[in-house]
Amino acid sequence: GAVVSQHPSRVICKSGTSVKIECRSLDFQATTMFWYRQFPKKSLMLMATSNEGSKATYEQGVEKDKFLINHASLTLSTLTVTSAHPEDSSFYICSATSGADYEQYFGPGTRLTVT
Amino acid sequence: AQSVTQPDIHITVSEGASLELRCNYSYGATPYLFWYVQSPGQGLQLLLKYFSGDTLVQGIKGFEAEFKRSQSSFNLRKPSVHWSDAAEYFCAVGGYSSASKIIFGSGTRLSIRP
User: Fold this and answer.
1) Which pLDDT does position B98 carry in this prediction?
2) Which of B4, B18, B37, B70 is the most exposed place for a label (fewest CB within 10 A)?
3) CA separation for the pair A41, A43 (Å, rounded)
4) CB B9 within 8 A of CB B61
């Protein structure tokens, strides 16, 4: 089946620094990738949708200048949390779809802790 | 507005007992419906999905779900749970294409009583 990886799985950074999270589709070309955020014991909140080669579409209330998304290739999307603060600490999950079937394939998630 | 409601925050069942997790949705058109499972600190695994056709859908790990349009429901069932089924379960609804947004319910945490 389709596999999506995320790197790193866990990251700790200091307040004010930026951190980049990678999402890769390992065995298919992802025309669309999605980034979600999950707070402890909460559901997944869609942050943005990105299509290869174009700007990401952000959900209402998500700061596009703080959460930079780049989908430069059909197998890689990155989420950069800029000037991170403790309230950005969360579990970030990406998903990818090839468009060939009606399914999104989810990555294993990245645990971000901002100290 | 599109939404998914999972009314049960936490359910505990005995091992070997049957299980039903409730899900109701609000969607402007015929929805694509999903159930995902998430173990602690892990990503999501798709249990099953409904796009069209037979309203009783079989999934992995012995799970099934039934789409009832008249009740706007897509409840998940399993006849006999195992201790390894303890996890968080999410119902979700999406649009007509894989590029459509998926909206998740708030989740139901399942605990298994030995």
Assistant:
1) 61
2) B70
3) 7
4) no
**Please, what is the Cα angle at B53 between B49 and B55, to 5 degrees?**
65
B30-69 pLDDT per residue, tens:
789 999 999 887 888 999 999 888 899 999 999 999 999 9
> Distance (Å) from the C-alpha of residue B84 to the closest C-alpha of chain A?
19
Residue A101 tokens, joined: 């079937």
A23-58 confidence digits (pLDDT tens): 999 999 988 999 999 988 788 999 999 988 888 999
Task: Give the residue from A29, A104, A105, A110 with the most B CB atoms within 10 Å of its CB, the best one to mutate.
Answer: A104
Nearest to A34 by CA among A7, A65, A59: A59
- Distance separating alpha carbons of residues B34 and A102, to the nearest angstrom: 11
Distance CA A58, CA A107 (A): 19
- Is there a contact between B1 and B59 (Cβ–Cβ < 8 Å)? no
Task: Say if B32 is an interface residue toward chain A (CB within 8 Å).
Answer: yes
Mean pLDDT over each residue of chain A, to the nearest integer? 92
In angstroms, rounded to a whole number, what is the distance separating the alpha carbons of residues B77 and B65? 6
Burial-class residue A22 by CB neighbours within 10 Å (0-12, 13-18, 19+). middle
